[in-house]
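Design a sequence for this backbone.
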């Protein structure tokens, strides 16, 4: 089978290797394609889910019920925002009596669900998770598990004690690109993993939207950016190497999005007659008003003819309209982490805001070959004969992993089989401990041990 690009609005099969490739590549299709995972089977009935959080991430996960109604059904929703709550409830057919404005109310109501998906703000992850586990629900928990190490360990202990199916939303593990990388490493074609270089390019507008103007701009109010943005990456590096982490070291700071870099003539809000707004790459008027990007945070009505005045009003009333150089943000806009694994392998991870692109970049150096990739394409070069082999697939956000993640969790819940999950709760917590240790290192100038 030859390589081909495949749209990812569904859950497509992943192309296997081209003719003449070695056996490891010939097996890649079956190894990473969830649609032909022999462990998956038709469930006796759909898993009934209570959605706690109906924002952007919650809506994506709830979308699996529309994609595969025979596997998952959303039967209740809790969100304090009535527009989001009812939008998700209407889309998934949740009755009015099962729409709640608070997770406490939802979990206190007569039980209608088998499991809970938690997609609330970072600091509201642990409490509903602990309550759901105490009530005997299975749980899919958006990352991060919690904003503190102590809370993460508490959730771990509760999950272990409950005996339930508990998964964390490490969606990159389900991206076809990383599944293909993992399968290739497992085949032995690369030999021993000696070192990994991994880059997370946030893209400068994404950084402005989420970590300068947005809800995650202050670490004390949410969690450090290495945790809330990059625990995906600490997890994926740990997963690819397949060894426990011993020590980490981190450097990084907030260099660009600060008051001292505010251009002469700039104003508190982009809409206030800022002299440099027309040429500013971070202009809120450009991003939200003229180019209509990232508007999901504004909770706009379906009728787009009503958007113009509402967007302008949001830019006057919310932090999304403020100058990126005049906020109270404290999250680093660049950082680098050195990681030492128990077996002597190393990894270097960088998170960068000041780039024009998104999509992780990965270089893997092995004893028998190396791999260079960019989330949609990678090249493996063998040291034995110098041959080069390629994998390529066009994907969507998170590399196409979102619905694949939900599918594995639903199958695990439906079959009562934790082994169907890509990551145990123990390993998920370890990736968070890596992030906490990296943040301590960054702040204190230390090399930190990672103790699970």
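Sequence:
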């Amino acid at each position: 089978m030859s390589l081909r690009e495949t749209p990812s609005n569904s859950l497509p099969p992943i192309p296997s290797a081209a003719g003449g490739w070695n056996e490891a590549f010939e097996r890649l299709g079956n190894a990473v394609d969830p649609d032909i995972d022999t462990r998956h089977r038709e469930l006796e009935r759909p898993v009934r889910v209570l959605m706690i959080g109906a924002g952007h991430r919650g809506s994506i996960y709830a979308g699996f019920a529309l994609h595969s109604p025979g596997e998952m059904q959303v039967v209740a929703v809790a969100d304090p925002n009535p527009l989001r709550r009812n939008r998700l409830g209407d889309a998934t057919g949740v009755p009015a009596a099962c729409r709640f404005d608070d997770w406490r109310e939802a979990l206190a109501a007569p039980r209608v669900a088998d499991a809970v998906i938690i997609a609330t703000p970072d600091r509201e992850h642990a409490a509903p998770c602990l309550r759901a586990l105490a009530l005997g629900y299975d749980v899919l928990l958006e990352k991060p598990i919690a904003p503190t190490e102590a809370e993460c360990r508490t959730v771990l202990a509760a999950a272990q004690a409950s005996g339930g199916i508990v998964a964390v939303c490490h969606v990159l593990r389900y991206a076809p690109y990383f599944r293909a990388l993992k399968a290739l490493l497992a085949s032995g074609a690369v030999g021993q993993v000696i070192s990994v270089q991994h880059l997370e390019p946030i893209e400068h507008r994404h950084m402005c939207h989420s970590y300068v103007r947005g809800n995650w701009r202050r670490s004390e109010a949410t969690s450090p950016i290495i945790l809330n943005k990059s625990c995906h990456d600490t997890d994926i590096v740990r997963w690819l190497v397949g060894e426990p982490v011993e020590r980490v070291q981190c450097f990084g700071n907030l260099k660009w999005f600060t008051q001292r870099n505010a251009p002469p003539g700039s104003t508190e809000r982009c809409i206030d007659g800022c002299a440099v707004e027309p040429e500013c790459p971070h202009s809120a008027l450009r991003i939200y008003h003229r180019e209509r990007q990232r508007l999901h945070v504004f909770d706009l009505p379906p009728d787009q003819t009503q958007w113009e005045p509402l967007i302008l009003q949001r830019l006057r009333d919310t932090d999304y309209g403020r100058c990126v150089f005049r906020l109270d943000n404290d999250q680093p806009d660049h950082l680098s982490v050195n990681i030492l694994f128990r077996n002597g392998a190393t990894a270097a991870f960088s998170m960068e805001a000041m780039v024009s692109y998104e999509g992780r970049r990965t270089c893997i150096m092995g004893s028998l070959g190396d791999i260079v990739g960019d989330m949609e394409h990678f090249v493996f070069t063998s040291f034995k004969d110098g041959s080069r082999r390629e994998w390529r697939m066009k994907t969507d956000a998170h590399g196409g992993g979102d619905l694949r993640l939900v599918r594995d969790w639903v199958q695990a819940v439906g079959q009562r089989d934790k082994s169907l999950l890509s990551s145990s709760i123990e390993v998920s917590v370890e990736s968070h401990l890596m992030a906490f240790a990296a943040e301590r290192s960054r702040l204190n100038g230390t090399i930190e041990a990672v103790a699970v």
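Residues 425-444 form the longest helix (20 residues).
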